[in-house]
Amino acid sequence: MRIINLASGSKGNLTYLETDNTKILVDDGLSCQETVNRLSLLGVNPDDIDAIMVTHEHTDHTKGIDVFSKKFNKPVFAHEDVWLGLDGQLKNVKQENRKLFTGDFSFKELIIRPVEVPHDVKCYGFSFEENNKKISILTDLGHTNDKILQSISGSQLVYLEANYDRQRLYNSLKYPLSLKRRIDGPNGHLSNLASANAIERLVLSGTRQIVLSHLSEENNSPELAYQFICNELSKRGLNEGIDFKIDVASPKPGVVFRLK
Known about the structure:
- The chain has helices spanning about 30-40, 60, 65-70, 80-85, 145-150, 165-170, 175-185, 190-205, 220-235, and strands at about 1-5, 15-20, 25, 50-55, 75-80, 100, 105, 110-115, 125-130, 135-140, 155-160, 210-215, 245-250, 255-260.
- By secondary structure, the chain is an alpha/beta fold.
- It has a seven-stranded mixed sheet. A seven-stranded mixed sheet has the order 7-8-9-10-11-12-13.
- The longest helix has 13 residues, at about 190-205.
- The protein is globular and about 50 Å long.
């Protein structure tokens, strides 16, 4: 499998994953044209995309889907509960391209396992498995728990939210207190500390590559998230570069990871 985050953050999220025979997008929060532009950087023709998997209805994850699906006639997969919030946004997706799932399903050679996560709308992460290789994407969630972490346990690579630094969030003059509490609440987003706690569990279960994702431009930074999480895990005897590796996603195309 090969995977790359082509955009991450509040201005748009887009991830591309491929196997030898399958090419999919996870979310598409960019315009259709920008999506095509970023795929072209990989030498990928949009006509060759096999499907779009949708985590939830927020526009930073769905902005480009309606036009992309219509223009290139692509199926859109989402949990049946998520589709309740998507119908008004994705009016141009053909009926035959509206694909609903309720649990694990197969798509070509991939086993796709949706993972329900706590957010302020119905939201799902995903694990993708092929020939004992497993990649998971887990963003837009207010907290983790044993069930969620067990669902993605065994992933060689995890894209995991590290949305905000709690001190920076509460010191912000731009956000009202109600919004700060929503972000920091159980159905909001993961803080750097909460992300570190999850990473500890994942590393102990065998994960070796983490990509910090969906960082807030206002309440976090790549340097802050990386240093805070590395320092926190070092206190617990887990050292970045030895026990695991961390990369940080950004609004720009990131690193291509290959699982062999």
